[in-house]
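Dear colleague,

Following up on Tuesday's group meeting, I ran the structure prediction for the two-component complex that the binding team flagged. I've pasted the input sequences exactly as they went in, so you can double-check that nothing got truncated or mislabelled along the way. The structure tokens for the whole assembly follow below. Feel free to forward this to whoever is handling the docking comparison.

Inputs:
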Amino acid sequence: MANVVITGIGVVSAFGLGVAANEAAWREGRSALEPIMAGADLAVGRVRGLDTASILPDPRQLPTMSESAELACWSGSLALRDAGIAPRSDVLANAGLFLGFWYERRTLEDYLSIARASIDRHTKKFDVAKMLRVGLKSQPPYTLLRSLASVGAFSIQMGIKGPNAALGTTPIAGGQALGAGLDAIRCAETELAIVGGTDCQTDLFEATEHGYLGPLRTRDGMQIGPGDAAGMLVLEDATAAARAGRRAHGQLLGYGERFFPNPEHAAEPSADGIARTIEACIADASDSQFTVDCVLYDDIIAAEQMDDALRAAGVAVPAAAIKRGTYLAGDMLAASMPWMIAIALSSNEFRGTTLVCDYGASGHYCAALVKRSS
Amino acid sequence: MKRKVAIVGLGVVSPLGNSVPEFTAGVLDGRSAGGEITLFDASKMATRIAAEVRGFDVTSWLGPAGRPLLEEDRSVQFGAAAAEQALVEARAVLEAVEPHERHISLGTSAAYLSPEDVKRDIAPFLSADGEFASLEFLAAGAQRPNSLGKLLYEQMSVWLAQRAAVTGGAKIHYAACAASAQAIGQGMRLITSGRAKVVIAGGFDSMVNPIGVNSFIRLGALTRRNDDPARASRPFDKTRDGFLIGEGSAVLVLADFETAERSNATIYGELAGYGCSLDAHNITAPDPTAAGAVASMNQALRDAGVSADDVGYINAHGTSTSLNDAMETKAIHQVFGARGRLVPVSSSKSMFGHTIGNAGAIELLATLVAMRANKIPPTVNLVEPDKDCDLNHVRGTSLDASYDVAISNSFAFGGQNATLVVRKVA
């Protein structure tokens, strides 16, 4: 089975653009949260001020792209640059692209455009019949494309033409994309895959659904909601990467996933679910020699749960090597797993092999083992 | 050696019928399901026709277990009913493996609020002059019925995982018109890689709603042959003018061959190969060189260990749009060479329309049932093939033919392509 290494990392979040900015903010414990709007008790992490057109080889496509697709382009561009791969270069013609998102962006404004045009002149109220007759004409032209096609948008910009998948509807979709990319390289479908997650759920429409779900609060009592973020990694067959002269940040030793379904969308994780997932991940890495030196995990998992889970899975880790603090930029949703891997491979807080654990609403769990290059 | 993957359970909800026997009869008889849209008032829309699922009641399939699903999106109800049919057939295989060896891999597309949802959840915060009360809208979110959550297809995964005691993992693929082909292909990968022994794979979708239909109208993708809905979907025809939107679900239970045989399961066929690629060309238009489609088909054939000469039937993506059908024709010629004019081709979308995120799954099912019946299903409504669509079209009625290998193509917006290969099992 092929050894898979990580040769490129790109992240963007409310912490900032790039690995260094994100790692510094995380390490220093800086909060990037802000109220979703004045007077609201919901805090979100927003990415601001990106000039996406400036990084796109073909900016004409920009109007058809959702904000999550834009973030994918940013983080993907950074990851490719980090790996020393130019957009639209030959190596990308066979490269894979596996991208996860909790949900593609749907904005409130799309619905408001329709609803405003559907108010009856006489009753002054929204009228379903008028919506069907008249209101739909105000639907923005790219509603469909903006809700469907991040993988397509990114592949067009970068010239990526190989095996691919777009995974959605769970906050661990970025982890699922990582696993799919790992398997694609292991089974020789491709030697290189760009994998990761992107989410941009801080629109009022999305945030009202998502923001009231989690139990986490800021120090001043605000509920913590979503955080705009994207994280992309360049995975490569180790032999191919060495042949191309690309430096590896580390090795992806294994990936594990489990689903203990809970109809309560806001269901919290269980120690048993985490333990079973860790076991799956460690079993997947059984071809490699390693000991777990550090753990980094999603804030939604309580510290006691993680301790219990590690014990149940038979993993002994020094207490000082267990880290969290990921929600200072909001819940990064599908970007969470690749973002945590980026931190584990770049921060001096980590050494050796790190176990990274993520949880998504409704009972989705995933874990990855990454070993830093010495 | 690569693990072989068996297909051991089938289920379908479709415009041609809501069970596998009804669907099979419709496909082999060449029946068109096009009709006027009845699910909402489309009388003022440029396209007023679709291939709708008729006579469907989720509780008739699931009994009391289906009642909670009545609150869910129509597509989720389709998915649950199709999955239930497949699970009943695959019970022995499921029981032969541990819950963590079972996975879910489904495909779907975009969901939108219905007019009633907009009226209930958004309009109350809109004043007569169009001002929106954002803060009140936000505050109401905490108490809001789960209408926005209805757009999250997670409920499908949760319901199905509980129904089939799945703990291995659940993925929803979201690659537009190739979503369920990718879901099935990636489900196959889960088995060949050893991560799973059984995968419940397929698609579920319904964009036959005002915003869904309007979205495609805005992109100029739908047929406007409103006065002749039964003949509106006419892939490869000189007079084609866009696709007929459809809806439904097809679910297959995949299992590693050893488990399937050990369980004495009915093996409907082997899912032998999967290929996928990206055009990297345009967000809506296919690459006119057909390079992405060619790569997808070639990779699938390689994966199955067969050559183009082994293929007895191509179930085309065949949308009935000008650009796709010409591109797919070119791709078939490039992959099949001289046989490009000989290998039988048809598009099932001529009968049940384009079911979007479910297209790959339902068309694989059409391919499979036809292969098992020693038939090649037709492209109906194909009267005069376009000069850019010079293939060996099976037109009008099914053709008797015995063959061992068939392929099914799916090509999506965004340039995501997928091809699946099925092989007959003796």
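The mean pLDDT of chain A is 92.

Cheers,
M.
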